From TrEMBL:
It comes from the Eukaryota. It is found in: Membrane. It is a multi-pass membrane protein. This is Sodium-and chloride-dependent glycine transporter 2. Keywords: Membrane, Metal-binding, Sodium, Symport, Transmembrane, Transmembrane helix, Transport. The keyword Mitochondrion does not apply. The chain crosses the membrane at residues 84-105, 111-128, 164-181, 193-218, 252-273, 293-318, 324-343, 364-390, 410-430. PROSITE patterns: NA_NEUROTRAN_SYMP_3. Belongs to the sodium:neurotransmitter symporter (SNF) (TC 2.A.22) family. GO terms for cellular component: plasma membrane. One of its GO terms (molecular function) is glycine:sodium symporter activity. Na(+) binds at N199, L264, D267, S268. The lineage of its organism: Eukaryota, Metazoa, Ecdysozoa, Arthropoda, Chelicerata. Pfam families: SNF (PF00209).
Amino acid sequence: MQKRTIENTGFEIEACYSYSDAQDCHFKEGTYYNRTCFDGNYSLAHNLSFLIKNMTKKPPADEYFINYVLGQSSGIEETGGIRWTLALCLVIAWVIVFLCLSKGVQSSGKVVYFTALFPYVVLVILFFRGVTLPGAKEGILFYVTPTWSRLATAQVWGDAAVQIFFALSPAWGGLITLSSYNKFHNNCYKDSLIVSVSNVLTSIFAGFVIFSVIGYLAHELGVEVDKVVDQGAGLAFIVYPEVVARLPVAPLWAFLFFFMLLTLGLDSQFALLETVTTAILDRFPSLREKKTWVVFFLSVLGYVGGIIFTTNAGVYWLQLFDKYAANFSVLIIAICECLLISWNYGAERFLGDIEKMIGVQPHFWTVFWSIMWRILTPATLVFILVFNWIEYTPASSGHYVYPAWANTVGWIIAFFPVFVIVAMMLYKIATTSKRPFREKIRLLMQPTDEWGPPPKLATFKTGDPAEDAGSEYIREMEIEY
């Protein structure tokens, strides 16, 4: 038996498949497997067909990302040290966020014009490049071919709900925060339809972009498409870079792809941090003149909180947060919002408020949204929440199963937002003037005196000069009121 080991540098990972080394081995009429080129002499003494049939292939990007970028430990219990490269990238990201938000919506609004539109340009470029690659057809067919049996599993519905909550940010506060800077008579109903439809269409289009290149990678590796499909970080930092590395002018495609990821991440972070900042400034108006310092403090706090993700066990913590942080709590909060608005405040009353902003709507419009908010939406969310609970499985990552204490931490993360709401409710009940308990509840379930537009603003019509003064003028009037 004679073996020729392909020369490689860096880290070792089982079944690493180098495309360039495999090509060299093929020219030598050998069979490449696990960094080794097996020639004809090996096939005479061994069952080479068995070796080929049972071959497992992993791209070098897998090895690079896991061992070099992450320095991934064997489990969440082995925290290891802080990866200075990741910590530095985290600093840069938070510095960008701080600079863009330090001056409020005036600065972030201008930046968003670029960060929101640039990804579409890159997606279009990657789409036309992807569909011209060999194997793209198989990848796209895999994407558009439904597996109907999966609809019977609660996990699919739960994942879909969480994805929608991530994409559209209902119950996160981002939509409410950003829309609060609109003019009073802005057509929020039309905006909501545009945002929802564009989000769905963008997701579908992005799927074609992703799976066209995944099909190409499967074609190059000689495996089925489902063998190279990955999720989350694996898709973004292993599968896609592996494809990009094989394209002509690879650095250009890599720059476009990762710069697109950066802009998408910044967009999400802008909305989240602006939500917290606006809540603090609205609660403590005296801090408005010190908004830059408020944003700076929150940015530092966010960086410190993210340090755990830059350790050797950071990817395990990321997956733990991803599983628990945005699943149960966001569904519970969304259900409560629906019930409080539609039943306590009143769906018709709320729709009447909207009509004051956008004009009188047909009767069908009122009936439709009243039924949606009162019955269909909360019922659907409760259904997803219950079945997510029933089919709950402890956290795991591949063959690694998280220890019991990690899942306990996950549950604490999951219900901490709900706990804060309950704690504030108890605080308000305890500090309300001395009245019977039922009267306290009735009083606290009513809108506050500050609810609604200032009297002057409520009489404005579209085109009024005061309305054209912009959202900052409106906010000043709200403060005075």
